[in-house]
Design a protein that fits this description.
Layout: H1 3-20, E1 28-29, E2 32-39, E3 43-50, E4 58-65, E5 68-73, E6 81-87, E7 98-106, E8 112-114, E9 118-121, E10 130-134, E11 137-141, H2 146-166, E12 175-180, H3 183-188, E13 200-203, E14 208-212, H4 219-239, H5 241-244, H6 249-258, H7 267-276, H8 294-315, H9 317-328, H10 333-341, H11 345-357, H12 361-399
Parallel strand pairs: 1-8, 11-12, 12-14
Antiparallel strand pairs: 2-3, 3-6, 4-5, 4-7, 7-8, 7-9, 10-11, 13-14
Helix pairs in contact: 2-4, 4-6, 6-8, 7-8, 8-9, 9-10
Length: 400
């Protein structure tokens, strides 16, 4: 190869590498050692050393979590040592998020520098977790033997098969399932931000499921309620990420509740009682949010599951997929439903109630008004009857 060709070839390689690994002009890469520790929901400590001949005159810690960046100024001594302490009350991190961090600064000669990036998982480390994996699931638990963990994995795999028939998605992710002993322990993860009746939670974008399974003979039944429910949230998110945040609660929670292997046995009597008491919730109200009060929230879950199951039975799962597509276009709750099914949410309520309870709203309303109608007859018409009889009696006396 001639010298000219060798020079051109070297230039091409340099240009390619420069394009692939760009650096700011004049910026240097600096090595560093560090030790990061944290106490969940309390504090984070980072200690380390910048490995340079002269300590930098400016040093900053960069933290990135959930696409949000935080920059904190650090003090550094003559040997390049630094220490950082952060209280999570002032700088809360989202539980189970992965946090990327590195250092940036300016050397004594004015040259900017940056270090390599590192990351940590902001896991709930209040407890010593045991772990068992079976792709695509990884179970973390505290109490119980391997059979306990394997039961959770088996339930997750069964739920995955059922859900993927409804919403096929690719299996290219690991889903973590954390099993707490009580709902109270689980709610502490979110600093009691969730209602007091919440016993399970999913973060679909993090592929994390939190459930609570108490001791007892019904542990598998608890798993068969919670794991399929939360797993549906994960798969709904990955099936249509742009639609997930716009799905109305009645559809999102209705699908998650309907897929439970062992539905809450209280749901059926709750619906029957709500129907008789005329306290069923309007589906248009469930387009926005569920009630925070436990009793009404349970009715919302039961009603949403029943309505979603009715839609699947009557119109098929393909229609549900088209409905999700409509919400993926950011359509409003009523508009997306009408475009998909060709009738309104109010008509859906009427259809479902007639199929579920065997009568329409108007029939039930008339039945409930019947006692008041009888009372109205006594109040209005009996005085008229007595008045007419008195007048008739008076007329006869005058004629006599």
């Amino acid at each position: 190869m001639s010298h000219s060709r060798l020079w051109v070839f070297s230039l091409i390689i340099w240009l390619v590498l420069s394009a692939a690994c760009p650096l700011q002009q004049g910026e240097e890469k600096v090595d560093w050692n560090c030790l990061l520790t944290f106490r969940f929901a309390e504090s984070l400590t980072l200690k380390g050393k910048i490995l340079t001949q002269n300590p930098p005159k400016e040093l900053n810690l960069v933290l990135v979590a959930d696409s949000q960046m935080v920059v904190q100024s650090l003090s550094v001594d003559d040997q390049g040592n630094f220490e950082y302490l952060q209280n999570f009350q002032r700088f809360p991190l989202r539980p189970f998020v992965r946090v990327e961090y590195w250092l940036e600064g300016v050397l004594q000669n004015g040259t900017p520098f940056t270090t390599s990036k590192r990351e940590f998982l902001y896991e709930d480390n209040r407890f010593p977790w045991k772990t068992r994996s079976q792709a695509p699931f990884r179970v973390h638990w505290r109490q119980g033997d391997l059979q306990f963990a394997q039961t959770a994995l088996n339930v997750a795999r069964e739920a995955q098969v059922a859900i993927k028939k409804m919403f096929p998605v690719e299996e290219n992710r690991l889903i973590d399932i954390y099993i707490y002993e009580t709902p109270g322990e689980l709610r502490q993860v979110f600093q009691n931000a969730n209602p007091s009746w919440v016993g399970a939670h999913a973060d679909p974008d993090l592929d994390v499921i939190l459930i609570s399974v108490s001791e007892g003979l019904d542990q598998r039944l608890q798993m068969e309620q919670q794991i399929p429910h939360e797993l549906m949230h994960i798969y709904l998110y990955h099936y249509h990420p742009t639609a997930y945040a716009n799905l109305p609660p009645w559809l999102q929670e209705g699908l998650a509740t309907a897929v439970e292997f062992y539905p809450n046995p209280e749901y059926y009597p709750l619906l029957e009682t709500a129907w008789k008491n005329q306290s069923l919730l309007s589906i248009t109200d469930l387009c926005q949010s569920f009630p925070s009060e436990a009793a009404r929230a349970y009715v919302a879950y039961a009603q949403s599951a029943a309505i979603v199951q009715y839609l699947i039975d009557q119109y098929g799962i393909e229609k549900i997929r088209k409905l999700i597509d409509a919400y993926g276009e950011q359509m409003e709750c009523e508009a997306g439903f009408y475009r998909t099914y060709g009738f309104s949410l109010a008509q859906l309520e009427g259809e479902w109630q007639k199929a579920r309870f065997g009568e329409t709203n108007s029939t039930q309303a008339l039945a409930n008004l019947a006692p008041w109608g009888i009372l109205l007859i006594f109040v209005l018409f009996l005085p008229l009857v007595f008045s007419w009889r008195l007048l008739s009696h008076s007329s006869r006396k005058e004629v006599a």
